[in-house]
């Protein structure tokens, strides 16, 4: 039975990989829109965040759980099968839902980092870096929330109660 620390690190590592998949999907959907560059920058930051988590795992000799990573990534992909009002193709509401998922992922990341700080297993250098990453994560959430507001307005403006 893995320790709570191992479970925490593995959960956040698997969730971080799934979040990167969701970023890639959102970026592909926004290719011709002004949000793609902002999403790319956020994805790169989240890749750095995942690298930090994985470096702590290496230091503590915590192995990733391939089953958990696969399961989390498959869950993200199954989430793509949700009804979106279209039989074939991408629905504009997908842009809104994807951003909501990314906002949630960033908030979960922050919560995991707060738990890590409380656990007192980080080195002083890791703890200092984590404080920087947590502050940046709050700005990530703000940037995603601003994008979400714009995308939701674009998608839902004048939509009324059709359907």
Give structural notes.
- The protein has one domain: Ferritin, core subunit, four-helix bundle (Ferritin, Up-down Bundle), CATH 1.20.1260.10.
- The protein has 163 residues and is mostly helical.
- The protein has helices at residues 4-29, 36-59, 66-78, 93-119, 124-156.
- The protein is globular and about 50 Å long.
List keywords for this structure.
163 residues; mainly alpha; Ferritin
Short description:
The protein has helices spanning 4-29, 36-59, 66-78, 93-119, 124-156. By secondary structure, it is mainly α.
SSE layout and pairing:
Elements (H helix, E strand, L loop, with lengths): L3 H26 L6 H24 L6 H13 L14 H27 L4 H33 L7
Helix pairs in contact: 1-2, 1-3, 1-4, 2-5, 4-5
Largest pleated sheet: none
Q: Helix count, per DSSP?
A: 5
CATH homologous superfamily, by name? Ferritin, core subunit, four-helix bundle
Instruction: Output the structural class.
Output: mainly alpha
Query: What is the β-strand count?
Result: 0
The residue-averaged pLDDT reads 86
- Which residues form runs of ≥5 with pLDDT under 50? none
């Amino acid at each position: 039975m893995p320790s709570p620390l191992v479970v925490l690190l593995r959960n956040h590592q698997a969730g971080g990989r799934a979040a990167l998949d969701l970023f890639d999907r959102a970026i592909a959907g926004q290719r011709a829109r002004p949000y793609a560059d902002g999403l790319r920058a956020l994805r790169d930051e989240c890749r750095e965040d995942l690298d930090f988590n994985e470096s702590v795992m290496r230091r503590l000799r915590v192995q990733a759980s391939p089953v958990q990573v696969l399961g989390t990534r498959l869950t993200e992909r199954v989430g793509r099968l949700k009804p979106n009002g279209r039989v074939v193709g991408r629905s504009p509401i997908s842009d809104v839902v994807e951003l909501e998922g990314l906002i949630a992922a960033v908030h979960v990341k922050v919560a995991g980092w707060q738990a890590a700080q409380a656990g007192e297993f980080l080195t002083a250098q890791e703890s200092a870096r984590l404080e920087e990453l947590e502050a940046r994560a709050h700005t990530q959430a703000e940037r995603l929330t601003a994008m979400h507001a714009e995308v939701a307005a674009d998608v839902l403006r004048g939509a009324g109660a059709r359907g």
